[in-house]
Amino acid sequence: MLSAKLTDRDEELSELREMFARTQGASGRIALITGAVGSGKTALLNQFANETADEGALLLDVTAGQGDDDLSFGVLRRMLTDAPLSVAARTEAERLLGARTAAPSLTGSPTEAISQLATTLLQSVEDRALVIAVDDVHHSDPASLRFLLHMARRIHHQRVLMVFTDASRRGDSLARYRSELAQQPHYRRIRLRMLSRTGMQEMLTDRLSSTAAARLSGDLHQATGGNPLLVRALLTDYQATAEAEGTPLRLVRAETYDEALLDCLHRCGSESLGLARAIAVLGDRATPALLARVLDTSARNIQMAMYTLDLCGVVQDGRLRDPEARGTIYDSTPSSVLADLHGQAATLLHQEGAPATEVARHLLRGPARYEPWTVTVLREASEHALVAGDTSQARRCLEAALEAAVDERSRATIRLRLTSVLWRILPTAAEKHFAQLTSGMAGGLLSPVEAVASLSQLAWAGQVEQAAELAERLREAQPWGPTHTDRLTGARSWLAMLSPRLRERLAADSAGTAEDTALADDPYFHAAGAVADSLTNGATDKALFVLQRYQLDDTTVQPLVFALWALIYAERLDLADDWSRRLLTECSGTHAPSWQALLISVRGEVELRRSRLSSADHLAITGLRGMSMRSWGLGVGFPVAIRVEALTGMGRFDEALDMLSRPVPDEMLDTLPGLHYRQARGRFFLATNRHHAALGDFLACGELVERWGADAPALVPWRTNAAEAYLALGQHQQAAALAEEQLKLIPDRQRRLRGMTLCVLGMATRDPAARTAVLHESVELLEGGEGQLQLALALGELGRVHHAMGDFGRARMLTRRAWHLAKSCSAEPVCRRLAPQSPEAAPVEAGPEAEVSQVNDALLSEAENRVAVLAAQGLTNREISAKLYITVSTVEQHLTRIYRKLSVKRRRDLPTALAELSPVAS
H helices within 323-407, ranges in order? Predict the structure, then answer.
């Protein structure tokens, strides 16, 4: 007996046993077991056949297989090979079969050999019952099938039971043999249904816990339709996963299931297999009419194949029962078949007016098609993909469209769009198209309106000269209309902003042209103007116009980024931070790492200028990770400069040196990002005592901006930086001269720049009184502003002056406050410089005890104490407001009372000991 247990087959097994019992009375029987593929016909036949053998019957069994119909009497020969026949019977059977060299027809009278062979078998039985069991009888060769039919007609009064299995199907070419069997009076057809819910529950309970069985039964029935083969396969995969990884919470599809599903499909026949593949390709579009056209067959054939798949539980209502089966079927389909199916689907869906995204999905997986409609569909699909944030799909569509296009202008336009998409995700990938784009622009295949973004990308990749030359050629070669001329003027303005040395070369033809262009809808022109206005007079109107006017896309991302830089140059860090966050949110739904990297670097600069060194470093790292150094092109100067300056300020000099050791484009140093890079490098050299190298970098910045006619302190305060280098070299006179010259160029509104320059001037001033006054003015300007690290430096210098004047208490208070500010900025080198050398350095009469006593005697309330401690630590009113969750107005009122109780006039006069305390918990 077989160890495997049959589930939900008791009724069918009982029926077969009853038929076998009747044969004992010389009443032959024929049973045809039919059912869908995987329904358990073979298992039922095997169990029953073994039972009859155990009861003494002569069992002749065989399984017919695909290919058996090529060999005459092939199935019959295999059935008799291992049969327990007598020597005489076996010899006679072999003689008779050996005489047959050709397969007889299924029509006409039985041949003598078949009749004699049947007689031989019947005589060899003697007093035993004969059971002939043929699995998958429909695969039998015609000669063997003819013999079986002959036997079926002769066993009416014999102790013979013939049991066959056959797959249920419609329109079968072998329907004739089933019809002939059905005409026999002793014939019975046993139809196997799929597992009932009770039967499935029984199978689950035998193999799983009751909890798992209850949880999986619904999903299992939906995925298989009760097909025992698929049910067992899914249970096997589930149990294997449970043993390896723990009990899963849902069905698991793995190797066993995949093999069972594909076995089902192959056994259903080539028509059903092909239909299943077509359904997997078409998905929800798989209607009977479309399937018939894709497979180039009749609706009737589709109906019959669909019936077979439905019967075995693979499909339901024309759809795959198990959504995950689609991947299994698709992946197992030969690539050539898939390509043909996708190609047919693309053509037919286009004819039916399906959305471009659906048609494109098939075009990308089918054979290359060089038809005009495919280019249009692929381009439309690429735009839909970009809206959905799927830049990879957009790229594939455009690359396919470029391959399919034959018209040179179309190819140039598609290539232009492709480079924009590539620039979103991997700017270096766009570079391979620049040569063809340049040729297309020079040849008039692209208008200036189309070409401006490419000129910007070309320059960003380091090919500034080529971009400038091409802009000039476009202006001179074609009689463009006013709009095109405006765009070219905008492109020249943009290139001159990015690389100011090109300013004279790319200047507008006349003031009138420039004035007219200002009215054009050109983001590049307006962004260039925004940077210029910010540097010359600190105006932000044009920058805000660009940010408010243009939505983030491939043609506006660079102008928007430089509008943010214009806000930074104007010291409007609040606006730059707010708008950069907005734009980052806007592009969060798009797969555009280059956009995000550019915007993140802007935020890094904002944090750097706010003296938040750790945050600036983190943002710079994030920006650099967003795309490779090479993909950054000229723009790499921005994040590298931010990171070098932040690391230098935090005293992490080895990491800063590592950043500076990385290669950058040679062309970058003479561009706007290059100025930031030179300044950061100079700051690193200054901090690491390479004073001459630092001075060289700062003076080089000055030479560049003067040569460009763009000498604005907001761009690069090179005089202030150079003055610091001269101070480090002991050349106070040169330092003071440069600082004074710088002050004359800095507008009053730029308080941070003026404050930091005054600090340097104070350090260079020898007269103590004048030095004190200058440093006091520096502190006043920096107080409450964004430059907390610059304020710490100014307070530290002022503390040194007071110490030198013998005002030790005031010196200690100023130095302590400066230390706290530097600590909050993570500026460890400044903290080390401000830290007292030894406890004995402070005079006893002005010691901390006296200050603590002064605070205690003042009887500050808890709320006032909290505000006083934070104020003494250097926090601004706004920062105190945020920390204590009170309004700025309330902070100001508390400070007024604190000053009165402590007998001080301003924040910097607060006792140093307050900074050592912890705020009272609220």
Answer: 325-332, 335-351, 356-365, 372-387, 391-404
pLDDT of residue 868: 86
Could you tell me which of 447, 378, 386 has the C-alpha nearest to residue 412?
Answer: 447
Spatial contact of 545 and 530, defined as CB atoms under 8 Å apart: yes
Is 562:495 a contact under the CB 8 Å cutoff?
A: no
Question: By three-state DSSP, how is residue 423 classified?
Answer: helix
Whole-angstrom distance, CA of residue 363 vs CA of residue 343: 6
For the chain, give the longest Cα–Cα distance.
136
Cα–Cα dist 805/576, whole Å:
42
Please count the CA atoms within 13 angstroms of the CA of 345 that sit on its side-chain side. Answer: 30
What pLDDT does residue 836 have? Answer: 58
Nearest CA-CA partner of 747 in 548, 570, 557: 570
- CB contact at 8 A, 629 and 636: yes
> Which residue type sits at 591?
H
Let me know if 850 is exposed, middle or buried by CB neighbors in 10 A (0-12, 13-18, 19+): middle
Q: What is the C-alpha to C-alpha distance for residues 51 and 163, in angstroms, rounded to an integer?
A: 13
Please give the C-alpha separations between residue 59 and each of 9, 94, 363, in angstroms, as whole numbers: 22, 18, 57
Instruction: For residue 339, count other CB atoms closer than 10 A to its CB.
Output: 16
Is there a contact between 732 and 725 (Cβ–Cβ < 8 Å)? no
Domain boundaries, the chain: 10-192, 197-252, 847-922
Tell me the CA end-to-end span of the chain in Å, nearest whole number. 82
Question: Starting from the edge strand earliest in sequence, which strands make up the sheet with 58-63, in order?
Answer: 58-63, 130-135, 160-167, 29-35, 187-192
| pLDDT value at residue 103 | 42
Tokens of 456: 């910007």
Q: Does domain 10-192 have CATH number 3.90.320.10?
A: no
SS3 610: coil
Rounded distance between C-alpha atoms, residue 922 and residue 853, angstroms: 23
Which residue is it, tokens 């200002």?
A: 518
Residue 250, token pair as written in the block: 């849902």
Contacts of 891 (CB under 8 A, 6+ apart): 867, 877, 880, 881, 884
* The token pair that represents 578 in the structure block: 């707010």
Beta-carbon count within 10 A of 539 CB: 16
Alpha-carbon distance values, 901 to 227, 575, 850, 876, 877 (Å): 88, 38, 15, 20, 19
Which pLDDT belongs to residue 850? 47
DSSP state of 514: H
Identical fold, 10-192 and 847-922: yes
Contact 752, 611 (CB under 8 A): no
Tokens of 279: 């359904």
Q: Which CATH superfamily is domain 847-922 in?
A: Response regulator (3.40.50.2300)
d(CA 132, CA 161): 6
**What is the pLDDT at residue 175?**
64
DSSP string, 735-798: HHHHHHHHHHHS-TT-HHHHHHHHHHHHHH--SHHHHHHHHHHHHHHHTTSS-HHHHHHHHHHH
Q: In three state form, how does the secondary structure of 839-887 look?
A: HHHCCHHHCHHHHHHHHHHCCCCHHHHHHHHHHHCCCCHHHHHHHHCCC
Chunked mean pLDDT (size 10), the chain, 922 residues = 61 93 89 91 92 91 77 84 80 75 41 83 83 90 89 90 83 69 91 85 83 85 91 91 81 92 91 95 93 94 92 92 93 94 94 94 88 93 91 93 90 91 87 84 75 81 85 67 66 87 66 45 90 92 96 91 96 95 90 92 96 96 91 93 97 96 91 95 96 96 90 92 95 95 92 94 91 93 88 93 87 88 92 65 42 56 85 80 88 88 76 59 42
